[in-house]
UniProtKB/TrEMBL annotation:
Species this chain originates from: Salmo trutta
Family according to the record: Belongs to the CDP-alcohol phosphatidyltransferase class-I family.
Keyword Iron appears in the UniProt entry: no
Compartment(s): Endoplasmic reticulum membrane
Transmembrane segments: 52-73, 85-103, 123-144, 150-169, 230-250, 262-280, 292-311, 317-339
Protein's recorded name: Ethanolaminephosphotransferase 1
Length: 362
């Protein structure tokens, strides 16, 4: 199998022993959304594959991103003096976002309902969730946009990173404790954004401090005994943040102001690639690698950009973004292919369906 090194034999073996464990104490989720999703899943045909539901929900967010890229490419349509986004686009965007949110809430329920839950399903779900962060944030940004009455592209860049780190924090906790503490921010931000048509920074930045406190109080049950091993998963995300921020700050052509949408997409996709590798490690109970290899060529790209060795910085960001997207897609396809091939060919009876509570956060 090509590029089999994406997933090691130890990781494939670890998937066989994986059991899902999560804590969701969000009242909105427990008392409102789950009852709604329980009703929705009952009308779905049993032949409908949970992974197809997951992928369809994700594609609704991608379609929103592409649709608003056409009508508001530079996030300035809401500013005075620019052609505004047509009303029907906002109606469609709201509908697609609601459908994506709903499908993200019912795919795990469909898996349990049809007795088809597997570690691959959870990996597929969480992997797409990590990538969905950038599509959701970029869509919300178009509501108020940049300009005198909006929010600057640099501010949105840092808000995006708050969302990204909030997402990875939950999986870092699970890497150390074996339990996924679901944050409250995603559900709350969904309701607030639809009610007020504006992003809610506190919803985005609500880190899962409950899980951190819980983890600290259970220090004797942590999987990793040293601080170095415990915080190792943060090395690559922090390096990614530093590299992208260096590009933003020292860009000769002010690339973030010139191409904000493409830059956000590049950062969000690179983050998803880094996060997926952490998810694989925490699900297979294997050690997280200190450095994601994707950061090595990215460091070279940033160096070429900030030193002016590449004259056309816009072309550089387009080419590098395409490379990052294709690399991440190839990674995802390879992991799924290797897992499926190994399951069906080498250990056909080793995996039994894992009952799990579906997660639905960014």
């Amino acid at each position: 199998m090509a590029l089999y090194e994406y997933v090691t034999r130890d990781q494939l073996s670890g998937f066989d022993k994986y059991k899902y464990s999560a804590v969701d104490s969000n009242p909105l989720s427990v008392y409102v959304m789950h009852p709604f999703w329980n009703s929705v899943v009952k009308v779905m045909p049993r032949w409908l594959a949970p992974n197809l539901i997951t992928f369809t929900g994700f594609m609704f967010l991608v379609f929103n991103f592409l649709m608003l890229s056409f009508y508001d490419y530079h996030f300035d349509a809401s500013a005075e003096g620019y052609s505004h986004v047509p009303s029907w686009v906002w109606v469609a965007a709201g509908l697609f976002n609601f459908l994506a949110y709903t499908l993200d809430g019912v795919d795990g329920k469909q898996a349990r309902r049809t007795n088809s839950s597997t570690p691959l399903g959870e990996l597929f779900d969480h992997g797409l969730d990590s990538w969905a962060c950038v599509f959701f944030v970029a869509t919300v940004y178009s509501i108020f946009g940049r300009g005198p009455s909006g929010v600057g592209v640099a501010t949105l860049y840092y808000i995006l990173w708050v969302v990204l780190f909030s997402f990875i924090l939950s999986h870092w906790e699970k890497y150390n404790t074996g339990i996924l503490f679901l944050p409250w921010g995603y559900d709350i931000s969904q309701v607030v954004s639809r009610k007020h048509c504006t992003p809610h920074p506190s919803g985005f930045s609500l880190f899962n401090s409950r899980g951190v406190v819980t983890m600290a109080s259970r220090s004797n049950t942590l999987k990793h005994s040293s601080m170095y091993e415990a915080f190792l998963p943060f090395l690559s995300p922090v390096l990614l943040f530093l590299l992208s921020s260096v590009w933003v700050i020292f860009s000769p052509s002010n690339i973030l102001h010139q191409q904000p949408r493409v830059f956000y997409l590049m950062v969000g996709t690179a983050f998803a690639n880094v996060t997926c590798k952490l998810i694989v490690c925490q699900m297979s109970n294997t050690r997280c690698q200190p450095l994601s290899w994707l950061l090595v060529p990215m460091a070279t790209v940033v160096l070429l950009a900030v030193t002016g060795l590449v004259a056309n910085e816009t072309l550089l960001i387009y080419v590098w973004t395409a490379v990052v997207i294709l690399t991440h897609i190839h990674y995802g396809v390879s992991v799924v292919s290797v897992y499926t091939h190994t399951t069906h060919t080498h250990t056909p009876h080793a995996r039994t369906p894992q009952t799990h509570t579906h997660t639905h956060h960014f």
